[in-house]
Amino acid sequence: MALSHGGSFMFCDMCGTMLSMFTTEFAECPLCKFKKSARELSGREISYKVTAEDMRRDLGISHFEGNLEVKDMEINKKCEKCSNTKLKFSTRQMRSADEGQTTFYHCPVCSHTFTEN
Hints:
By secondary structure, this protein is mostly beta strands. Helices cover 10% and strands 31% of the residues. The protein has two helices and eleven strands; from the N terminus they run ββββαβαββββββ.
């Protein structure tokens, strides 16, 4: 994750720790108690650039593409089309986080694909 130019104003001049706003008058370093005037910080902006690689590393995942995908796994479930009992499946969060994930089933015998919410 990279800070855009000039983002260092929110870090302690003494030890480099990120400053915290405890009052409207000043920002304080929680480690060494260095204080910086809130007026000095007023109107400044910090922006971050997060890459897909940053997300993979921080979340500990090896594959990222739009929605998080899980590698195909095998399950004992009957195919709706040919009755094969060994299906591949993967899951995806397709809707909001408070709703269940969608499971995608794929039959390696007849290539039928279906979903279950």
